[in-house]
């Protein structure tokens, strides 16, 4: 092979390698991302020079690349920047459309920082349209997100925009407060343009409030920063503001100087803006195209002048064609206007819905936090009420005091039930209730519920009848706790509103699909019944038949609302039939999975309460540590333990508890959760690092279900919720001591 042939082969091989290499470079995600970022940066640069057409061109190129890369974050940023550009060139409707696209993408991709920027710009658009309330809503949403993401350097601009909006609404005190925050934030983060702008606008506020001296000082400070940094737009606004202030002060020479400076600067800014408006460039481009087309048409017409008949025909056809095209153009124009208005309205409504949704979510979160705090604060004094009333009842009170103490105890128990019902409703509404399916015997479960409620039924001279379909199996997989809660509420309701009567409970199958059975449960009574007008609202919270019924029979009005919520969680439905003075029937349908399994082998371990004699236990050397910061609760717990012939030490914080456990031998720890310093959970975690076997009870007023996983992770042996029933408290302690005795004996 000759030397030339070798060169040719080498060249071809090099070419073959370079082509795919070039393609791979063009497709490389990092390079594409750099190109996107570069074009966005270029658009910002052109925007500062008022080159709107070039800025838009760079953004369109960036958008194409972002969509090619399927980069949601960059796509959202580009749409947001397009919205900002369209706001500047006064295309408000297009700006709303672009910004709503940006917001939709950023919400779905959880890009909260850039979502905050988009909200801010959308607020500016609505402010430009004099829709000030909508503007303030979007500014608030933007501020909330910036605070959430710890982007506090962006808050100064939000306060500046809020202040300007308040000026438009003539709310000068609110404007002043906003500008104060804007100036402080801008000064902290060295944002000179925002600082200058805020000072100028603060001067306007002082001027409006009649404080011209402060207005002059503040305005001059803003003017100096704008001059030093050549902020031409802010400088122009400063000249106008200071001319107004000086006119009030009678400084006519200064007024003239500022107005001349304003006119000169304003003209140069306007000329620069108009020279670079994208509309003008696009129009010039379109006109040039039309001129070229007209030249071609004219040339063709001139060539065909000799043929008069052809000219006539062409003229007629041209007129007809122009008429048709004009009509089509008019029709398209009208349709386009209608579509544009509809789209703008939809985008506006969509934006309003997003704001409303965020407000609702915030309100729901605030409500949940409020309820959690309030219930804890209520449970703590309730512990004192129920504990002290129990203690007094056990200490041989005077005969005339017994009824008062029983009333106090009843009130405490009623209040606790009410708190628990509110918490349950709150959990259902917040979708925090989880389904825990397990195998169980349905017939046995209902029999147990009837046995538990039978004493209450006998008090009202009621006979309960239970009819379980003979052809229906007994074992199912479902959340038996929720089914029990539903039935207890409904049967308890019937017992409450029935005297000297009967209650019928029926269970039968209405549908079967494979192993899934849809069962109907009926709870019928011949009690007082419910009027037609009240039946429609029976499942609403705090709904009862009437105030008189509430006073006579008691209750919180939350039971049926809880029942309906639980049935819906179990994917079922509930119905009601009732007639005054004849009785009521509640029937609900829920799907359950039929199983041959007798009983769940993986049931959660429950405490087996101590049923033996306490004298079988040696309580002489038993020592208990009570960790509790509330002095009243300390006294009550210590009193109960003393009555149980148990000695105890008391500490009021987690740090001291850990030290006491390290230096002493305790059999049981009663650990409160909320305490100053480290919490009971943190203290228990520390204890578990050096003692895995010690019995630690969480003695807590928090909602157990919400914190259960934290208690498990911390290593608590068991939980005793406050306020507790004294007999259950005693049984749990004796059970723990009995287990220790058994374990030590077997060892």
From TrEMBL:
Domain Response regulatory span(s) in chain numbering: 623-737
Coiled coil, from the record: 269-307
InterPro entries: CheY-like_superfamily, HATPase_C_sf, HATPase_dom, His_kinase_dom, HisK_dim/P_dom, HisK_dim/P_sf, Sig_transdc_His_kin-like_C, Sig_transdc_resp-reg_receiver
Keywords: ATP-binding, Coiled coil, Nucleotide-binding, Phosphoprotein, TPR repeat
Start and end residues of each Histidine kinase domain: 373-594
A Pfam cross-reference name: TPR_8
GO molecular function: ATP binding
Keyword check for Zinc: no
Reaction(s) catalysed by this chain's protein: ATP + protein L-histidine = ADP + protein N-phospho-L-histidine
E.C. number: 2.7.13.3
4-aspartylphosphate: residues carrying this PTM: 672
TPR repeats: 116-149, 156-189
Protein name as it appears in the record: histidine kinase
Biological classification of the source: Bacteria, Pseudomonadati, Bacteroidota, Flavobacteriia, Flavobacteriales
């Amino acid at each position: 092979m000759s030397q030339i042939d070798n060169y040719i082969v080498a060249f071809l091989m090099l070419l073959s390698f370079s082509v795919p290499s070039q393609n791979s470079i063009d497709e490389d995600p990092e390079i594409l991302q750099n190109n996107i970022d570069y074009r966005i940066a270029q658009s910002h640069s052109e925007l500062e020079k008022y080159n709107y057409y070039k800025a838009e061109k760079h953004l369109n190129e960036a958008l194409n690349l972002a969509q090619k890369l399927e980069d949601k974050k960059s796509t959202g940023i580009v749409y947001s920047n397009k919205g900002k550009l369209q706001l500047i060139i006064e295309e408000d409707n297009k700006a709303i459309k672009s910004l709503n696209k940006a917001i939709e993408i950023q919400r779905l991709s959880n890009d909260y920082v850039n979502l905050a920027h988009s909200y801010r710009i959308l607020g500016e658009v609505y402010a430009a349209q004099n829709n000030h309330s909508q503007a303030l809503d979007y500014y608030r949403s933007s501020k909330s997100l910036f605070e959430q993401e710890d982007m506090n350097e962006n808050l100064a601009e939000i306060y500046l925009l809020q202040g300007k909006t308040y000026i438009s609404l003539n709310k000068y005190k609110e404007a002043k407060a906003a500008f104060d925050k804007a100036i402080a934030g801008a000064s902290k983060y060295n944002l000179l343009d925002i600082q200058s702008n805020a000072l100028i606008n603060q001067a306007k506020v002082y001027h409006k409030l009649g404080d011209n001296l402060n207005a002059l000082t503040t305005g001059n400070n803003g003017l100096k920063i704008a001059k030093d940094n050549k902020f031409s737009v802010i400088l122009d606004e400063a000249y106008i503001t200071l001319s107004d202030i000086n006119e009030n002060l009678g400084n006519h020479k200064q007024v003239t100087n500022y107005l001349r400076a304003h006119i000169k600067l304003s003209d140069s800014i306007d000329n620069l803006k108009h020279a670079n408006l994208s509309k003008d460039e696009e129009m010039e481009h379109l006109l040039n195209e039309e001129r070229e087309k007209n030249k071609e048409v004219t040339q063709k017409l001139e060539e065909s002048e000799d043929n008069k008949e052809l000219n006539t025909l062409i003229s007629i056809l041209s007129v007809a064609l122009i008429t048709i095209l004009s009509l089509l153009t008019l029709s398209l124009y009208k349709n386009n206007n209608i579509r544009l208005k509809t789209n703008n309205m939809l985008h506006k409504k969509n934006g309003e819905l997003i704001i409303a949704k965020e407000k609702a979510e915030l309100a729901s979160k605030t409500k949940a936090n409020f309820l959690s705090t309030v219930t804890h604060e209520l449970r703590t004094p309730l512990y004192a009420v129920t504990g002290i009333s129990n203690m007094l009842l056990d200490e041989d009170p005077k005969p005339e005091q017994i009824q008062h103490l029983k009333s106090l105890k009843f009130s405490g128990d009623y209040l606790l039930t009410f708190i628990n019902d509110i918490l349950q409703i709150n959990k259902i509404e917040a979708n925090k209730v989880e389904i825990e399916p397990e195998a169980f015997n349905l017939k046995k479960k209902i029999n147990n519920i009837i046995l538990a409620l039978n004493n209450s039924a006998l008090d009202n001279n009621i006979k309960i009848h239970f009819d379980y379909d003979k052809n229906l199996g007994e074992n199912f997989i479902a959340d038996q706790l929720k089914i029990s809660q539903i039935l207890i509420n409904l049967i308890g309701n019937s017992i409450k509103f029935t005297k000297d009567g009967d209650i019928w409970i029926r269970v039968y199958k209405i549908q079967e699909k494979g192993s899934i059975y849809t069962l109907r449960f009926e709870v019928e009574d011949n009690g007082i019944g419910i009027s037609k007008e009240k039946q429609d609202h029976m499942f609403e919270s705090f709904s009862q038949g009437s105030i008189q019924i509430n006073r006579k029979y008691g209750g919180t009005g939350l039971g049926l609302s809880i029942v309906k919520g639980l049935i819906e969680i179990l994917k079922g439905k509930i119905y009601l039939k009732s007639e005054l003075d004849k009785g009521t029937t509640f029937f609900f349908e829920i799907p359950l999975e039929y199983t041959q399994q007798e009983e769940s082998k993986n049931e959660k371990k429950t405490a087996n309460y101590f049923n033996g004699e306490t004298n079988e236990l040696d309580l002489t050397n038993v020592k208990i540590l009570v960790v509790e910061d509330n002095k009243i609760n300390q006294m009550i717990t210590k009193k109960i333990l003393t009555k149980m012939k148990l000695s105890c030490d008391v500490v009021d914080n987690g740090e001291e508890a850990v030290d006491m456990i390290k230096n002493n031998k305790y059999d049981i720890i009663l650990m409160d959760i909320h305490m100053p310093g480290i919490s009971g959970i943190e203290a228990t975690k520390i204890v578990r690092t050096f003692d895995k076997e010690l019995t630690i009870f969480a003695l807590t007023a928090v909602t157990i279900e919400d914190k259960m996983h934290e208690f498990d992770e911390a290593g608590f042996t068991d939980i005793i919720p406050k306020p507790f029933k004294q007999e259950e408290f005693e049984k749990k302690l004796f059970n723990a001591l009995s287990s220790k005795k058994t374990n030590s004996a077997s060892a």
